[in-house]
Design a protein that fits this description.
The protein is mainly alpha-helical and about 350 residues long. It has 16 helices and 8 strands. The chain has 2 domains: about 120 residues, no CATH class; about 150 residues, no CATH class.
């Protein structure tokens, strides 16, 4: 028995040394000697020589001078890779896609071919009529209470605004409690639908948006104000506008512009996606630099083409670009955005 145990122990020790010491060391040496860039996370530096990110993990870009990556269900968090896991029948998916489309989609034909629909969404919203009935915001909150609750909960300013509203409208809160006895002390999210119905009645053709204002000591502060224009209206109410205008032909949008990847961290976008963003990026750089829009566009196109590639040397899939690498090249070529 002792002989069997000793041999088993030696086998275990041998396996541990091979698998936990020698093999990792071999991989470490091979990686650092032959593939140091990839082995250290494909980290790239910015113009100041400091690391700005990994070419393997997507990160958000908000300035119009830069190309934007695919949406991320993981919030671009490298430690929380995940997809949205939303079914095609889930309205949250439809709403997320519609919210992305609102400010960017264009007419496909007719007198307004090539023009953004955003302005017409706002004009329709001003009329405050959806499917023949009034109070668009009230209908939106009533038909999709989860979206109204998400609006309240996703921003602390929103939550505080609804909480302050509840203090002033004790009668409506009391009615909510009466209708919902299982919620004797409603939180701001519980009151979302009631709040928006009240707001819609008092502010026809308007919605709430966070804006900058001048506070005490002339400091800039963020406040919530009723508005009748802006990206919030274009995004949130695009789907309802589309339902009221089902026969309008709109331009096709690249799929990866509005859909998340399985990981939520895909660092690449297709060239079709990049070309759709090209007008915005090149025109903003031209305005910043006070240069010819045509010349700047040609230079941005050259940067895209230089960075484009297709899987298996073009034998499979379509051409794509790495968003971080392209944006770094734009930064190095044109300088710092305004």
């Amino acid at each position: 028995m002792s002989k069997i145990i000793s041999k088993s122990f030696l086998l275990l020790l041998f396996a541990v040394v091979i698998c936990c010491v020698i093999f990792p060391l071999v991989l470490l040496v091979v990686g650092q000697v032959f593939f140091p860039f990839q082995a250290n996370g494909s980290i790239v530096n910015g113009p100041d020589g400091k690391p700005v990110g990994s070419l393997l993990i997507s990160q958000p870009f908000t300035k119009d001078e830069y190309f934007q990556p695919r949406p991320s269900a993981a919030g671009f968090n490298g430690t929380a890779s995940s997809s949205s896991a939303l079914a095609a029948s889930n309205y949250a998916l439809r709403n997320r896609v519609a919210s992305t489309l609102g400010p960017i989609v264009r007419y496909a034909d007719g007198a307004k071919a090539g023009q953004l629909v955003a302005h017409d969404i706002e004009s329709w919203f001003h009329q405050d009529i959806f499917q023949g009935a009034g109070h668009i915001v009230s209908q939106w909150a009533g038909n999709h209470p989860s979206l109204a609750q998400a609006w309240v909960s996703t921003d602390s300013l929103h939550t505080a605004y609804v909480a302050d509203w509840a203090k002033v409208h004790a009668d409506l809160v009391a009615k909510f409690v009466k209708d919902n006895p299982n919620t004797p002390q409603p939180a701001p999210t519980d009151l979302a639908t009631t709040f928006f119905q009240s707001f819609s009645n008092g502010n026809p053709g308007k919605f709430l948006s966070v804006m900058t204002d001048t506070g005490a000591n002339h400091k800039t502060v963020l406040v919530i104000k009723p508005v009748n224009t802006g990206s919030d209206i274009q995004s949130i109410f695009f789907d309802m506008w589309r339902q009221d205008h089902p026969n309008v032909n709109l331009q096709d949008i690249p799929g990866d512009l509005v859909t998340t990847s399985a990981s939520g961290l895909d660092p690449h976008i297709t060239m079709q996606n990049a070309n759709y963003q090209l007008d915005r990026v090149s025109s903003k750089w031209a305005a910043d630099l006070k240069r010819s829009p045509v010349e700047v566009r040609n230079e941005v196109e050259d940067i895209l083409e230089k960075n484009s590639f297709a899987p298996l040397a073009g034998l499979a899939g379509e051409k794509m670009v790495n968003v971080l690498q392209v944006n770094l090249d734009l930064r190095n070529h044109f300088g710092k955005p305004q």
